[in-house]
Write a structure and sequence with these properties.
Blueprint lengths: L1 E2 L2 E2 L4 E6 L3 H13 L6 E6 L4 H16 L3 E6 L5
Parallel strand pairs: 3-4, 4-5
Antiparallel strand pairs: 1-2
Helix pairs in contact: 1-2
Length: 79
């Protein structure tokens, strides 16, 4: 979409997490309620437990359903 001959601005949000699914979910809810919304959210897991990884999968699905492209990166360790 172009406005006034300029390309549309796109933006991304990066969320870093390590075993704090409640914080990630609150951040995601805030992004979904915002206007404008980001075009994509990069979820970077820094070695969380299997339970938190399942939560990140749910967060990614919610983002996708809200029209935001989720990108999940699993580092396997805290960087």
């Amino acid at each position: 979409m172009k406005m006034s001959g300029r390309p549309a601005v796109t933006w991304s949000v990066v969320i870093l997490t390590l075993d704090k699914p409640e914080h990630t979910e609150l951040c995601t809810k805030s992004l979904l309620a915002g206007d404008p919304r980001p075009d994509e959210v990069v979820l970077v897991d820094n070695g969380s437990s299997a339970e938190n990884l399942l939560s990140l999968g749910r967060v990614a699905r919610c983002l996708e359903e809200g029209g935001i492209r989720p990108i999940l990166i699993e580092n396997g360790r805290n960087l």
